[in-house]
Amino acid sequence: MKIHRFFTLALAFVALPLFAQDATFETPPTLSAAAILKPEFAAGNGFTVRDAVTTYAGRNGYLINSDYGTFAADGNVMLVRRVAEIGAITKLREVSRTDEYAKALGSAAASPLLVAKDLITNPVSTVTGVPRGLWKFVNRAGQALKERTEGRQRSQYEDSNAAQLIGFAKAKRVVALQLGVDPYSSNEALQRELNGVSWAAYAGKVTFTIATMPVGGGLGLALTASGVTNTFNQAIRDQSPGDLRLASLKRLLAMDVSREDADSFLNNTAFSPTVQTALVLHLEALSAAANRSSFVRLANEESVTEGDALFFLSTSRLLAELQSRGRNIARLDTIGALPIAFGDDGTLIVALEWDYAAWTENAANFVAQLKAAKFDGKAPPSMLIALTGDASPLTQTAVQKAGIELATRLVPGPLQ
What is the pTM of this model? Predict the structure, then answer.
């Protein structure tokens, strides 16, 4: 299928005739955390989310005051992760104050493994950085392929090879999943606590009672569509990053992704092992979809940060959710930097991680360009925009008037 590549959306776009030149547009609002979040995500043991929530470029911007410092969460997905991590840090610190922990440290100090302790790398630095926004995925017509080096470097999310060899990393994964957090998280404070307790448990040969009920239902439910959660949790617990990539490679090749594209994607260190594994499982769930290789290729080309990787993870999750709800996905494709899909009835599906959609000039231009789309010289019979989060009343009205179906809150996460 040759796609008419119509996406030249830039911030200074001239509005198309679909919307009047004097159309009413909104300024992305500042929302109230207390008003939009479930209570357990707005505040809890050791943390409070600041009430002012910006809605810049698709992602809600949160600041979390905690007993362990201030955390920024760029979007609903990251908020769920950070809140769970704060709870995990609290639990891990409770463990570190117990007599059981002190005895475990004593046993670890006498263990032959003590010489290997220094081989456990320091926690990763936080890599979330300043929010970059999501409009780049719909505003650009595309970009040149980035140069990729041969082979794969260990990403900032992973433990050292030495840690893998002595078995520490497996113990750490078990502890993290008990707490419902990502063992490969970019949260430095969490990594520090995980390393400490996991080392004592592993080298001291002690099993701590640390299981808790994570806010949001645990790591799998925070990242994956319901149909793949059990497979995902088991894989993260039992497999090293290298084994996860090997399993993902086999899945990708079975989807007719070329070896070159699969290797390049799996070598992209913007993706943590967890995010990469979840994305591949979502694509596998789209069992009847052709051209899944286009999604893999685009995700690799466009992902240079953790936030980028989460955008593609969320898109794959949305498509898997739609599939599980009876919207059969027949084909995946791309328009510029934007992944798209087609239902088996020909419906054009645009699935977006979008926490709050205001009716801005950017949004109007985006909808106008969708309406102007031609595929093999024909307009699709229908269109669906599927969002993870909410859309303003004005957005809902405008999209409906344009003849496009809008589905919201497909993955509401922390939202009420």
Answer: 0.83
For residue 101, what are the β-bridge partners?
none
Tokens of 158: 């992973």
Contacts of residue 17, Cβ cutoff 8 Å, sequence gap at least 6: none
For CA atoms 71, 74, 75, 78, give the dihedral sign. Answer: negative
DSSP SS3 for 339: strand
Question: Of 341, 350, 330, whose CA–CA distance to 404 is shortest?
Answer: 350
Distances (CA, A) of 143 to 137, 212, 415: 11, 45, 34
* H-only helix segments in 97-167: 99-109, 136-139, 161-166
- Give me Rg for the CA atoms of the chain: 22
**Alpha-carbon distance values, 188 to 122, 388, 399 (Å):** 9, 27, 41
303: left (phi over 0), alpha (psi -120 to 50) or beta: beta
Give me 268's structure tokens.
């992209």
Q: Length of the chain, please?
A: 416
Chain centroid to Cα 240, Å, comes to 20
Residue 381 and residue 375: Cα distance in Å, rounded?
A: 11
Joined tokens for residue 65: 């005051």
Residue 133, token pair as written in the block:
């926004």
The pairing of beta strand 348-352 with beta strand 338-343: antiparallel
Q: In whole angstroms, what is the distance from residue 308 CA to residue 297 CA?
A: 14
The DSSP string of 250-282 is HHHHHTT--HHHHHHHHT-TTS-HHHHHHHHHH
Per-residue pLDDT tens, the chain, 416 aa: give them: 322 233 333 322 334 445 555 568 999 999 999 999 999 999 998 999 999 999 988 899 999 999 999 999 999 999 999 999 999 999 999 888 888 888 887 776 766 555 444 444 344 443 333 334 555 554 443 332 232 233 455 555 565 544 444 477 888 888 898 899 999 998 989 998 988 888 887 877 777 766 565 666 678 878 899 889 999 999 999 998 989 999 999 999 999 999 999 999 999 999 999 999 999 999 999 999 999 999 999 999 999 998 899 999 999 999 999 999 999 999 999 988 899 999 999 999 999 999 999 999 889 988 988 888 888 889 999 999 999 999 999 999 999 999 999 999 999 999 99
CA dihedral 256, 257, 259, 265 (to 10 degrees): -160
